[in-house]
Amino acid sequence: MRASHITGHGTPAEAVELVDVDTPNPDPNEVRIRVEAVALNHLDVFARMGHPEDDGTFPKRSGCDIAGFVDSVGDDVDDDWIDEAVIVYPGVSCDDCEYCLNGEHTMCHEYEIIGEDRPGGLAEYVVVPAWCLETKPESLDFVTAAAVPVTFTTAWRMVVATGELSPAETVLVLGASGGVGNAALKIAHSIGATTYAATSSAKKATQLTAWADEIIDYTERSFDEAVLEMTNGRGVDLVADHVGEATWQRSIDSLAMGGRMVICGATSGSNPDIDIRSVYQHHRQIRGAPMGNRQDFRDVLSLVSTGELTPTIDRVLRLDEVADAHRAIENRDVVGKIVIEPSG
Question: Where in the chain is the domain with CATH 3.90.180.10?
């Protein structure tokens, strides 16, 4: 089968390669999926560029957001899954520890992510645990379905499950043009909260007007100063920040008295300077919110399937164009999601 592999650290041209490899066979509790669509995330770029937890092993096959048809099942999996159209929940856990039994799969000490810790979906076929399967709603095509798992589940966890945003509150979403940020903005808008979206260009800003009450171009002015000006010095109740080091203190400074900052990543780095007094003296909270659990995934998928939430698809590319997708994400030349069709 054809697959897109990351062969080492380097530029997309140097490190992303289309290869022919053996088609995998499922173990007893696994299924094989014929991949119809797979969406990219910053995780794909980090696998190529390296990150603190990178084990340095190559080749790697990324691709966390997978949708397709079940092609084959392991001996312990119900044959009824064969030919079923499915979406994959990307988290894999032991399903037996105190956290898993409480439904918090991402807290499991054995937690892994398909496409990061296991071979991902940037291939014509992929093998995943049967537990990860969710039947694809008939209302969704494969491209739209693939745009849901990582970004919308993470955004739901940030804004709803962890952030506890309510309709009467205000929220600042950083990186509102990217995958997680765009999903968070749409979720906050659907709740009825007043939304402030930070983005990096006038072009991107025009694509956010349907969900943002106020848009801040952070290349023209500091977003914390803009938020304080727009809220008459009060600040916002919630900040959704997946940027990390570069925005950390300004995100805290954007909060109202008693506000919450939810974080799900650190794309700009993980060692920020912080004024501790700016947290405790203002009764502020900082809450960690990585990708949500299975119930978060099902909750947000239900809203996408009914059209209450709609992923933004920036572009659809072929498997031999994955390097182009890496460049676009790395250069922040994306609004929403880039989706790959391996059979295209």
Answer: 2-147+311-341, 152-288
How does pLDDT run across 39-57, given as a tens digit for each residue?
Answer: 999 999 999 998 766 777 8
- Other CB atoms within 10 Å distance of the CB of residue 340: 28
**Per CATH, is 2-147+311-341 categorized as 3.90.180.10?**
yes
Q: Closest Cα to residue 334, out of 182, 189, 186? A: 182
Query: What are 60's strand-pairing partners?
Result: 6
**Amino acid 52: pLDDT:** 64
Question: Mind listing the pLDDT tens digit for each residue in 179-209?
Answer: 999 999 999 999 999 999 999 877 888 889 9
For the domain made up of 152-288, give the CATH fold: Quinone Oxidoreductase; Chain A, domain 1 (3.90.180)
Sign of CA dihedral 299, 304, 305, 306: positive
Question: What pLDDT does 312 receive?
Answer: 95
Is this model's pTM higher than 0.85 or not? yes
